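Reminder to self: tokens first, then the designed residues, so the page reads top to bottom the way the pipeline ran.
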């Protein structure tokens, strides 16, 4: 239901980051991957130790996110300012909270 809005918002943010510079765009990718990694960590913390199948899937996803973020950093991604990181976290909370509510 919300996919078109999230896609449009993500696209707009990506365009803005790309217009700023390649380094900012890559920094945005790196920060996004870092935040997704933390989100996956929270899922791992809630999963029972006995659910090895789900844990393996999430751990693989986490490893992929780490690799993407590292690749973006090595390609020249810059560290984003704290207010931008905070805005990204708030946008993520709105999205996940809305998805839970619906």
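Designed residues (102 positions):
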């Amino acid at each position: 239901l919300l996919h078109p809005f999230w896609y449009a918002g993500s696209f707009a943010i990506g365009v803005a980051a790309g217009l700023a510079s390649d380094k900012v765009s890559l920094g945005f990718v790196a920060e996004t991957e870092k935040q997704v990694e933390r989100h996956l960590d929270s899922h791992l913390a809630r999963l029972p130790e006995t659910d090895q199948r789900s844990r393996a899937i999430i751990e693989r996803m986490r490893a992929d996110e780490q690799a993407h973020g590292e690749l973006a950093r090595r390609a020249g991604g810059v560290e984003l300012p704290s207010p931008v990181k905070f805005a990204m976290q708030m946008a993520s909370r709105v999205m996940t909270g809305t998805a839970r509510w619906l």
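The helical segments are 3-20, 22-46, 52-74, 82-101.
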